[in-house]
Amino acid sequence: NLQAETKGTYFPKILKRDTSFYLLGWTPGTYDSHNALNALMRCVDDKGSGQFNLGSYCNPKVDELTLQIQSETDKAKRDAMIKEAFKLHADDIGHLPLHQQALAWGVASNVELVQLADNFMPFRYMSVK
Fold this sequence. Notes:
The chain is mainly α.
């Protein structure tokens, strides 16, 4: 049975991992892969790593790569590590994405904005009259 809940009841429940199935949207504050790796794919620990890894997926090699990615400054090396970490996660079937939510948009005569093709919405391009 599908049960719709408010954020106030839903998030405490899923963060306790008190569910067998959940819907989680993820929009990182930056386009950097480390955000998703650290929050969604790292092993859960008491320091906050894997906070939203709600299925408790755990691969120590992904954790090791995520820590290295965090401080690697050589772009080619870092990109290779990111590719390897995501491949390990995919090969392990660490998550099973069933739904990709498209952004919903509304219009108003007093709102102007430049909508980018990637659905990212920098508020600096928005004005309300």
